[in-house]
Design brief:
Layout lengths: L9 E8 L5 H11 L6 H18 L8 E9 L2 E7 L21 H8 L2 E7 L2 E9 L18 H7 L1
Antiparallel strand pairs: 1-2, 2-3, 3-5, 4-5
Helix pairs in contact: 1-2, 2-3
Length: 158
């Protein structure tokens, strides 16, 4: 997908049952839609984390529960948003703990996404992560030219 007319955004939505075996289908759905992006593996992992959190912490895992996944794609990136059925627990990113067996999902999202956030309340929350395909970087150097050694002089001594 190299060209997007008028810089339009492509949007796909799909509802998934709140069952563990459907997390794989959410990953496959996302991977298929974004297969040509360089960061597709990161995006698929974030979808997996969002879905796992919905099943572990929200009403989406109750019988008949579900969650909605939205995938957006534009010329220079993509985003994923997962809306669950809510919980009285407030989402938080815990401090890293090397000994903990869980609690790293949102840390992973924070590390991989260009930006992420959540909105909502106990009746339903949406977790969104954006991934820019191209980012602009500015290189700044604090090296003083007097700190740079003369390579020719070093080679002459050898």
């Amino acid at each position: 997908m190299d060209e997007y007319p008028d810089d339009r955004v492509l949007i796909w939505r799909r509802s998934f049952p709140g069952l563990p075996e459907h997390v794989r289908k959410a990953r496959e759905f996302t991977g298929f839609l974004l297969a040509d992006l360089p960061r597709v593996d990161d995006i698929v992992l974030v979808v997996s984390e969002f879905a796992a959190n919905a099943l572990r912490h929200t009403a989406s895992a109750r019988p008949g529960g579900h969650y909605l996944l939205e995938v957006q794609r534009w010329r220079h990136g993509a985003s994923v948003a997962l809306t669950d059925e809510g919980s009285h627990k407030v989402p938080r990113v815990p401090e890293p703990d090397d000994m903990s067996e869980c609690g790293r999902g949102l840390q992973t999202v924070r590390a991989l996404a260009t930006e992420w956030h959540w909105t909502g309340d106990a009746h339903g929350r949406t977790f969104t992560a954006a991934f820019l395909a191209r980012t602009q970087a500015v290189m700044v150097s604090s090296i003083d030219m007097s700190d740079v050694f003369d390579l020719a002089a070093v080679l002459d001594r050898a």
